[in-house]
Amino acid sequence: MRDTSENTGVVFLSAVRTPFGTFGGKLKGISPIDLAVHASKIAIERAGITATDVDQTIFGNVLYTTNDSIYFARHVALKSGCRQETSALTLNRLCGSGFQAVVSGAQEIILGDAKVCLVGGAESMSLAPHVIRGIRWGTPLGKAPPMEAPRQGAADRGRSVGGTHRFLRRAWNGGDRGESG
């Protein structure tokens, strides 16, 4: 790590967004890694660098929807053309995972651990598995409803993420003024 007393600026060379689709739509069979690779290759090209310039890849991925998702950032790095020596970090901060990747990349640069970071995030809700709890040991009829993994994990004190947002807005702003979300 270098001396951090010098002023280290962080510059965004390019920004590309992964496609947004509808649940079960045209993108349903495309892995989130492939979506991230597509966006990463374009971002690298627009930045005017080569993939081999990347020192660190940091990607957010919440739901491991494919067999290779556990090494999400590593697969994105290699499929995007980064060096084998390029380090990779996959992180999960739920809805803030992509933003956390940006923050973590900036920290890598500021601390002198990297000069160029490839950061981002991708998901595919259409590839998320369904889960039936308790079926391994058998359950009485009607006692184990199927649960979608995203809904099961995206809850805070019994509320959905959107429900928590509305609860907090009402608690801190004195009510719901008809805003959406």
Offer a concise description of the structure:
This protein is of the alpha/beta class and 181 residues long. It has helices spanning 32-47, 72-79, 97-110, 149-153, 161-173, and strands spanning 56-60, 87-91, 117-121, 130-131, 147-148, 155-156, 159-160.
Could you list some keywords that capture this structure?
181 residues; alpha/beta; Peroxisomal Thiolase, Chain A, domain 1; two-stranded antiparallel sheet; 5 helices; 13% strand
- Spatial gap, N to C terminus: 43 Å
Quickly give the structural class. Answer: alpha/beta
Named CATH architecture of the largest domain: 3-Layer(aba) Sandwich
The figure for the number of domains is 2
CATH class categorisation of the largest domain = Alpha Beta
The low-confidence parts are none
Please report the total strand number as a whole number: 7
The average pLDDT value, as a whole number, equals 84
Q: What does the main sheet amount to?
A: 3 strands, parallel
Rounded to an integer in angstroms, the radius of gyration calculated over CA atoms is: 20 Å
Order of helices and strands: HEHEHEEEHEEH
By DSSP (H or I, 4+ residues per run), the number of helices equals 5
Report the portion of residues in β strands: 5-15%
Q: Any idea what the shape is? A: globular
Percent helix: 25-40%
Strand order of the largest sheet: 2-1-3
